[in-house]
Specification:
The complex is a heterodimer of chains A (462) and B (93). With 462 residues, chain A is an alpha+beta fold. Chain A contains 15 helices and 16 strands. In chain A, strands 8, 9, 10, 12 and 14 form a 5-stranded antiparallel beta sheet that branches. A 4-stranded antiparallel beta sheet of chain A has the order 13-11-15-16, with no helix packed on it. In chain A, strands 3-4-5 form a 3-stranded antiparallel beta sheet, with no helix packed on it. The N and C termini of chain B lie far apart (44 Å). Helices cover 73% and strands 0% of the residues of chain B. In chain B, helix 1 runs antiparallel to helix 3. By secondary structure, chain B is an all-alpha fold. Chains A and B meet through helix 9 of A and helix 1 and helix 3 of B.
Chain lengths: 462, 93
């Protein structure tokens, strides 16, 4: 089916010298959607470290303590599987949404887009609109230019440092971090990471911008493999637009032998990656839909219907039916649903404590004088809850088992691992020979905190 | 300063891109290696003598380390190769 995809070829030198892009500001439906998305995502990023949950920071990736707090959940290194699953789910979601809606991620959610948008806004506030910025860059240095450029740098550097500070605040408690900064007692490593991340933000959002998407982003390279003729893409309707050309207001383009495109080049001017969408879909397009907003604005002005540039599919452009449900969408969707369900179920069933039982390697069993048999185990208790608990160990088998030392309570602090030697005793020949027994760890103070595990109990046969 | 020839401009742009892409791929591979490595190794366990049970012999750990670094090194090199190739213009046909 891909053989039918029309060749969309753009002649461009493989390695062209980089030319600065001056995106023109635009308002419209999609610009509003992106602004909303920027507010929500940056809001999450900048506010979350300040939220509290049960006396601690709500979202904290506490690397020194080797545990991650996400609201009510605590993750330990033993929960590595959850991180792995989460990454797989993220990747599959990307595939799914790309197959359905194209590069939605790039246009609305990617941190690169979100911060570039913010830095562009600061550039506009200090240096003016597109024409003013171009003029300012061409102009020789003057006091006015210096003032505008310095104001932009002050805003950029402040935003970058605040971003770096917030980022580190996800790993070091942010209240502590701000107190350290206020008291000028910031640790070397924290300082380093704040500057490092701040510099990365400054460079990526201020200067590299679309070059990150074009040259550094792996997703940009392989996303086209997820596209088909039913994927939503931003396209210029060549059939309707061509032949393009200027015309008088109010004249019917068809009567003048022209298409709807008036060749105003607004779509090119607003493009953050500096491409001309009218040359066809290109790998540099991050699907930000700025050209749609621009073209709709112009179409409204000249009195033509909107949608000369629009979200559509290749099938729709070819006057064929667009199918939403197709094998790849169904497969991605099913896998995604399966994995998310699995993740939620695993999370719900996750035991708050873990219990490992290791048999003593030195002896199989030991017969006592009073007709019993003893097995020795090392019991490892990991308390994954946020509180200290007192635990008792009990054992069940085919006949009565006793755990020695009897009735002992083990107090395990939050996050600690305790190894305890335990002896289990039963009557020698009841039942005959070895059996599989169940060990149970139960918190004395919270009935919900319990876990079971199986172990082998060795005994002689008659 | 004399203007650069177009081939010189292309050469420099290509060089810059290869340098950026190589550093960036190495960075991502290092992030991956750090994540995997320290999910299993607790640096403080060294000081406190609590080494994981699977550290039975040194040669096992060396072998595991080698394969981990090989894996992440290959991932980084592969990404660099993938990104340094010229982009296919347009979509798949």
């Amino acid at each position: 089916m891909n053989a039918k995809f029309p060749p969309i070829v753009v002649e461009a030198p493989l390695y062209a010298a980089h030319e600065k892009v001056y995106p023109r500001e635009i308002t419209g439906r999609y610009a509003r959607m992106r602004t909303l998305s920027v507010w929500v995502l940056l809001g999450i990023f900048y506010l979350f470290p300040w939220l509290s949950w049960g006396g601690r920071q709500a979202v904290l990736f506490d690397l020194p303590a080797r545990k991650f707090f996400i609201f009510g959940l605590v993750f330990w290194p033993q929960d590595f599987i959850f991180l792995t699953l989460l990454l797989i789910i993220a990747a599959l979601s990307l595939f799914f949404f790309t197959a359905v809606g194209g590069r939605l991620w790039c246009g609305y959610a990617c941190p690169q887009t979100v911060w570039t948008e913010t830095f562009l806004w600061m550039e506009r506030v200090t240096e003016g609109n597109r024409a003013a910025r171009q003029k300012l860059d061409r102009a020789p240095w003057s006091m006015g230019k210096l003032a505008r450029k310095s104001a932009k740098q002050v805003l950029w550097i402040t935003a970058a440092l605040w971003t770096g500070f917030t980022f580190v605040g996800f790993f070091t408690p942010i209240h502590l971090l701000s107190a350290e900064i206020a008291g000028a007692s910031l640790g070397g490593w924290e300082m380093f990471w704040i500057l490092f991340y701040g510099f990365a933000t400054y460079g990526n959002a201020g200067y590299l911008r679309e070059q990150v998407c074009k040259y550094m982003c792996p997703y940009a390279r392989f996303q086209s493999a997820m596209f088909d003729r039913d994927t939503l893409v931003i396209t210029y309707d060549t059939e309707r637009g061509e032949p393009r050309g200027a015309r008088k207001r109010g004249t019917d383009p068809r009567a003048a032998g022209k298409g709807d495109c008036i060749d105003c080049t607004w779509c090119v001017q607003v493009c953050p990656t500096g491409i001309d969408i009218r040359q066809g879909l290109q790998i540099d397009c991050i699907a930000c839909a700025a050209c749609i907003d621009a073209c709709d604005t112009v179409m409204d002005k000249v009195g033509s219907p909107r949608g000369l540039i629009r979200y559509t599919t290749q099938h729709a452009l070819d006057h064929e039916k667009t199918r939403l449900l197709r094998p790849r969408v169904i497969i991605y969707g099913a896998l995604l649903a399966l994995l998310i369900t699995g993740f939620v179920v695993m999370l719900a069933l996750r035991s708050p404590v873990s219990l490992d039982v290791i048999r003593d390697r030195n002896s199989l069993y030991r017969l006592t004088d009073d007709g019993n048999v003893d097995n020795v185990y090392t019991v490892r208790i990991l308390n994954k809850t946020e509180h200290e608990h007192k635990f008792v160990v009990s054992a069940r088998g085919a006949s009565a088992l006793s755990v020695l030392p009897a009735g002992r309570e083990y107090s395990v602090p939050s996050g600690a691992v305790y190894s305890i030697p335990v002896r289990i005793r039963r009557a020698t020949y009841d039942p005959q020979g070895p059996e599989t027994i169940t060990l149970e760890l139960q918190s004395v103070d919270d009935p919900a905190v319990r876990v079971e595990t199986k172990a082998r109990f060795l005994a002689p046969s008659r | 300063m004399a203007p650069l020839s177009s081939s010189e401009i292309r050469r420099r742009a290509q060089l810059r891109r290869v340098v950026v892409v190589t550093c960036w791929s190495g960075f991502l591979a290092a992030a991956l290696a750090t994540m995997i490595c320290f999910a299993f190794i607790d640096p403080r366990a060294f000081a406190e003598g609590r080494t994981p049970e699977w550290w039975t012999t040194r040669s096992h750990v060396y072998a595991l380390g080698f394969f981990l670094f090989w894996l992440t090194g290959t991932a980084g090199a592969g990404l660099a190769w993938f990104l340094a190739r010229p982009a296919r213009r347009g979509l798949r046909r």
